[in-house]
Amino acid sequence: MRKGFVLWFTGLSGSGKSTLSKMVEERLLERGVPVEVLDGDEVRLNLSKGLGFSKEDRDTNIRRIGYVAKLLSRNGACAITAAISPYREIRDEVRKSVQERAAFVEAYCECSIEKLVERDVKGLYKKALAGEIANFTGVSDPYEPPLNPEVVCHTGEETSEASLGRILKTLEMMDLIPKDPSAEYSAEEEAEVAKRLKDLGYLG
Ligand SMILES: Nc1ncnc2c1ncn2[C@@H]1O[C@H](COP(=O)(O)OP(=O)(O)O)[C@@H](O)[C@H]1O
Ligand SMILES: [Mg+2]
Known about the structure:
This protein is of the alpha/beta class.
């Protein structure tokens, strides 16, 4: 059995977590990898129904997502999570617990607040900036970017296909998914992924 893993997206609202998680899911299914997506917006309707956006409730929400992701990944599946997960300490706590039996791949969707406000996919930034939404991450609530993510996607500056390519390449290099010989990556991009993983202590 191939080693299971958690692909943990983190980033501000509108930074591309849901978009990329669905794209990765599709590609992994094509390659025969068992996969489940735990999307923050959806989890808040069932597993975390009733939780709000205080620090305590956010932490509880992330711990629940982390717990389910751990259960899936330790049975050889891939669990993709797509929640803002603003606090570094809680993400690192989940990382530690997942890494007991599976791999943890943190994917940071990096996008400037200016770009997010300009895009405003869900119309939430406009409201948050007008003071109509309290505790809005990046506007009136903290976001702590990861210090050593396995992969960074600059979603304000690159296409979602480019972001997807880098994520798949990272998973391939970590030997978590089968290689797709037909996929095309530039030598430059491949070298960039390899460098990041080497710096983090992966790859011999
Ligand atoms: N490189 C990229 N990766 C992901 N999404 C992107 C990228 N470039 C542009 N987008 C767009 O940004 C938006 C991201 O929205 P969404 O995935 O719902 O964000 P989130 O789930 O983080 O709140 C989508 O409209 C998507 O098409
Ligand atoms: Mg989303």
